[in-house]
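Case study: D-inositol 3-phosphate glycosyltransferase.
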Amino acid sequence: MRVLHAVTLHSPTGAFGGPVRVALNLAHGLAARGHRPELLALAEGFAGGPPRDVEGVPARLYPARRLLPLGFSGITSPALLARAGRLVREADVVHVHLARDLVTLPVALAALRARVPLVLQTHGMVDPSGKALAKVLDALAVRRVLRGAAAVLHLTGHERRDLDAVLGAPLATAVHLVNGVPAQDPRPQPAGPPRILYAARLQARKRPVDFVDAAPAVLRRHPDAEFVVAGPDEGELATVRRRIEELRLADRVFCVGALTSARVLEELRRAHVYVLPSVDEPFPMSVLESLSVGTPAVVTRSNGLAPAIGEAGAGRVVEGADALAGAVLELLEPENAEKASAAAHRLAGEAFSIDAVVGKLLEVYGGAVGAGQARTQA
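Here is what the predicted structure looks like once written out:
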C-alpha cells in the first residue's frame, strides 16, 4: 500500500514538533510491514536544499516560502500546491496531519477532489478558535475536509469534543488512536550529579520558564544538579535566559538549542528526570520518548498523558508550576527513581507500542480503501 503522509514542515531543528515525529514513526512502522510510505512537507533550514529522504523514509520536500507573518500558518510552496493533485493520485491512502495552514489543508482538499481515501490526524491543532483567520479557514476548508475524510484520528476525548465543536456536529468518522513510540532498551540508572531535562519547543504554552523557576528548590537539596533546556526557540528563549540570570543559575541551567531526534534520545538517556511543564498538551511525543527509554516524566494535570503516567507510577503529575520541584525531588530519591524508571519503560511498551498503533492504523486504512472502492462501484 502506498501511503502519503503530509505534514506542514520538516526542519533540522524539529521546529514543527510532534506531528513530524508521529508521521515518521508511523512511516517506519508501515515500511516494516511491507508498505510504501512517503513524506510530503515543506522544508526549511537545510544547507544545499531539502533531502530526498528523512530517516530512511522517502520524502518530497519543498522549500518553504513565507507569504504571511502568521507562524506556520503563513508558509507554503507554490510548487507543492501545483503538484498536490498528482501527488495524491499516486497514493492509495493520503494521511494528512492536519493544521490550519497552507500546506496540509490544500493537500487534504486535493485528496477529496481526486477521490483518494483521506485519513486526517489533527494532533490537537484544530480546535475552536475566535481568530478571524481560523474562522475563514474553517468555513472555506476545515469543515469540508472533516466531513469528507474517511477517518479522523483523535488522541483524547478532549480533542474529539474540539473537533465536534469545529464541525458543528458530532464527527461520524472519528477514530481514537494514540501516538506510539518504537521500542527502546531501558537506560541504566544514570550516574553522576542529577540531570534534569526539558526538551521541547520554547514557546509560552510549554512553560519553559516554569522549568527554570523549579531549579532553586531542587538545588538546595542537590547543589550539584544540572538543568538542561533543549529545543528550538519559539519566542521564549530570551525570557528563559533572563530568568536564568535573575536567579543566578548560569552555572546550573544550560540552554543547548535545538537537537536532532537522535540527540534528544541521548539526552533522555542521560537524564534522571524529564520535565514538561506545558499546559493543555494533547499527547506529547517528547514524553512518550522519555518513557520509552525509562526516564520518569513530570507533567501537569492538563497533559493528555497525565492519567497514564499517574496510574502507572511512571513519573509524577502536578497541578501547577509550584509543585514541579517537589515532584523532581521525589523522583531523585533512589528507590522512587528505580520504581518509576521501570514503570515508565513498561508503560511505553505496553500502552504505546508503535507496532500496536500501526496495526490499528492499517485497519483504518483498509476501511478507508474499502469505502472508496464501494463509492466508485456505486
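For the exam, be able to explain this: The mean pLDDT is 94.
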